[in-house]
Predict the structure.
Amino acid sequence: MDVATLQKQLLDYSNSLFREGFLDKQFNQLQQLQDETNPDFVVEVVNLYFEDSERLLDELAKTLDQQNVDFQKMDAHVHQLKGSSSSVGAQRVQNVCVAFRNCCEERNIEGCLKCLQQVKHQYFLVKNKLETLLKLEKQLVAAGGSIPMYC
């Protein structure tokens, strides 16, 4: 595939991620930190986000599975997930975390269980979308193109 076709494909795909609310302007700011001295910065940060998020999702599931749920501990995990989601621009995950924290505050186990399912769903959606975006970027660079700034 030629560079122009890859570039158009990448721009169309990235625009859809912003339009559909998967990513927000924070992802653009993350990209601006990447340069020739650190060309893999975004990939590294996104991969750390994936590792951290999956660890936190496991911790949340374990905490909710306890006989006596520690809502304070759960809220701390949700707060951490919300923060890391915000730092990479994963808007939908961040939004679900807000509702999740409210359920923790209300000590609402049913609400927390529902929010955990929602946050997992949104996380795995955005993970899949980001992996596709990064793959397209890699193909573009391999073809001799450069990664554009997204809207």
Observations:
- The longest helix spans residues 109-142.
